[in-house]
Amino acid sequence: MDKSYYSPQGGLAILFGNIAPDGCVVKTAGVSPAMMHFTGKAVVYESQEAANIGILGGEVQAGDVVVIRYEGPRGGPGMQEMLAPTAAIAGRGLGDSVTLITDGRFSGATRGGAIGHVSPEAAAGGPIALIESGDRIEINIPARSLTLLVSDEVLLERRQRWTAPPPKARSGYLARYAAMVGSADTGAILAVPSLG
Q: Which of 97, 107, 119, 145 is catalytic?
């Protein structure tokens, strides 16, 4: 049997760090060796739609880290699948030089430096909400780490200035879901209150 198709480790990895204290997920099987340890400049978008426009419009260059936030369970609400921005990155020839970080999710078709399920999410006040464009971010997949290279003092100052944006859904089932859903790291399930 030809064992060259097999890896000694699984195809997924969980990373932790000051961006994702509760973890995030990367499909290591789809990441090129050159991107396994990568440091780049953040380009921040508040939605998948804004990211698509920015990527296709040339705002993202080789060496950047695209950050798409407010697409997690609460912020989405629900977790949008981020195929469009990853396809746009690949389509512009940046698949081996740009990483994408999101509190949204990816499908099994995703390839490249795509890190999702960042927990806690931005809408819940997770540290991904504190990233600013131009910040340096280090991704070290072998070490299982994701680090925003900004001092604790600066992050504390940003935390004090941060306010949650208004919910995208203000009525109906989506508003109920957004108000009651848990974090992605615990399954993004509804925390239904007990009647007893």
A: 107
